[in-house]
Structure formats: C-alpha cells, structure tokens
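Q: What structure does this chain adopt?
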Amino acid sequence: MKKTEETGKTPAGGRLYRAFGKRALDLLFALLLLPPAALLVLPSMAIVKAQSPGPALFIQRRPGRGGKPFLLFKLRTMISRTEKDGRPLSDMERVTGFGRFIRALSIDELPQLLNILKGDMSFIGPRPLLMQYLPLYTPAQARRHEVRPGISGWAQVNGRNALSWDEKFALDVWYVDHLSLRLDLKIIGMTIRRVLNREGINADEGVTMRPFTGGGGQAGHG
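A:
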C-alpha cells in the first residue's frame, strides 16, 4: 500500500479498502462463485470417497487474523500414512493421482469459499500455515497475521515453495504493508495464469515443504 511522500501516511482510499472494501469484495465474489464451484467440488468429493477410504474433506485448525484459530476446509488429496503392512509412506507417496490433478487446478482449495464467507479467510493474503509455527515466528514474521490469510498470496505467485521460509515470510509482510485493490487484482491475475498453466498455488507444508522450526535460512522446498 503506497504512502504519501508528504505525510508518510497511507492514502484514504487504501485505508478504506483495507478496512471495508476488501471484505465486501470477498463476500460478493465468494457468493457469486459458490454455485459454479459446487459443480466441481461435489463430484470431486464423490471421486475422493470412491478412490480411498476416509472423509472427502480435509479439515484442520489453522491460524487466522491475529493468530486466532479457525477450521480450514479443503478436499482431501492424500491417503493414510501407512501401507496395509504398517510401512510408513512418504508424503509424496500419500498423494493420490486424482489428488495431484485437483491440486494442479487448485480445485482442492474451493471449499475455502466457505472460510471466506465465514470471515476466516480472504481470496488474497498470506497462506495459513500450521498452529505450531506461531511461537516460532520472530516479531517481524508474525506480522503476516495482521491480515486475513488467503487462498492465494504474494509469496505463492512469486516462487511458492521454491523459496526459503525467510523469503516467504518477507513477501508476506511486504504484502501486509502494501495491501491495496491494485495489488490484489495483480495477484489474482498472476494466480489465474499459474492455474491455467497447471503450476498450482497451494503446495501443502506436509507434501513438498520442510517444516518450519524457527530461525532463518531454511529452504521451503523439500
């Protein structure tokens, strides 16, 4: 979000978007997208159930704005952690073929429209990570929780899990400081291009990323 050179303050239009406009647009577009999204989510849920045992939805507590926990909804894309003989499976082995397909198209993220309607999330914002990371953040890194988490974000369209954790958090905080309608529209456009190119935007921490353990310089790609 730009600040005027004369005062160092955020322009009134930017403050209004942050305070009211962003949430209003989230609600409007979540309501508009919910019916067509259901046409993709409901048959996908049936395929997930038919392909492997377990619930069709993956539900997990994640930290939202201010670190407040909420229940995040996604389509399940993985099987259980062990083979029938008890052998533990790696995270990559657990992802199903259909799971990879819906991840590539970000269909697994569509249930998060419900999170947006509830006020837990926004379309654009830092990705919600894991609850156990909260005490590991530096004060600067923790600023990523000053806004609602998003389905896509500035870090996701600028390298995603190829970045180190420090780089990801720096991009998240940059977004917090520069949040604006123009920036959100830019991220939406970049996200759509990535999805159409089947690059995806939603690499889950447990599948392709090393856990964050605090400190600096950790690679985000596993």
